[in-house]
Task: inverse folding
């Protein structure tokens, strides 16, 4: 869980202000038609793990394709390389959330089977023995739920963070592509 939260944090900017600062640097270079400056900025070590700068590099490498194709390419790349990786990493959370209550239920059924078997086989049943089996049954249910409930909450938190990542990537890339289209139009480039 911690590794997944850290992975999402790697893909995003630490704050809105750091994102705005990066975008301002990009915008300044784009106004000067300094595409190499944008490439150099995006390809610097501090931005290697960030989604937006890496997608900007893809956009700049493929800027002659046309705006519609470029938007499609960036969307596919984002889904395939970033979102798919995060979804793959979150799949185990869903597996545990679904499996833990089932294992708890299995323990419950086992405990109840043992309790009823003692009732059926004995002419006189000790309530303490029945209580032990019923206690085991309820304990396994509680364990299964105590595993699943926090993971449901954590899974929802992760999905919110992934959603925020998507929103910021779309917003920042949209601004960048508008700037790219303007810069290319002014230089007579192919992006339209």
Result:
């Amino acid at each position: 869980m911690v590794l997944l939260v850290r992975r999402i944090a790697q893909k995003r900017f630490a704050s809105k202000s750091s994102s705005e600062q990066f975008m301002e640097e990009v915008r300044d270079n784009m106004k000067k038609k300094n595409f190499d400056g944008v490439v150099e900025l995006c390809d610097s070590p501090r931005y290697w793990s960030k989604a937006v700068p890496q997608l900007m590099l893809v956009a700049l490498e493929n800027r002659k394709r046309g705006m519609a194709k470029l938007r499609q390419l960036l969307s596919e790349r984002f889904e395939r390389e970033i979102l798919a990786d995060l979804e793959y990493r979150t799949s185990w959370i869903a597996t545990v959330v679904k499996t833990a209550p089932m294992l708890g239920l299995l323990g419950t059924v086992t405990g109840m089977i043992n309790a009823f078997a003692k009732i059926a086989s004995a002419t006189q049943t000790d309530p303490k023995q029945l209580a032990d089996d019923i206690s085991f049954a309820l304990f396994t249910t509680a364990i299964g739920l105590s595993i699943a409930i926090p993971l449901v909450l954590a899974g929802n938190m992760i999905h919110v963070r992934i959603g925020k990542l998507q929103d910021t990537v779309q917003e920042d890339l949209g601004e960048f592509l508008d700037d790219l289209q303007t810069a290319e139009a002014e230089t007579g480039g192919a992006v339209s």
Residues 83 and 166 are 9 Å apart (CA to CA). Residues 11-187 form one domain. The chain is about 85% helix and 0% strand. The chain has one domain: 11-187.
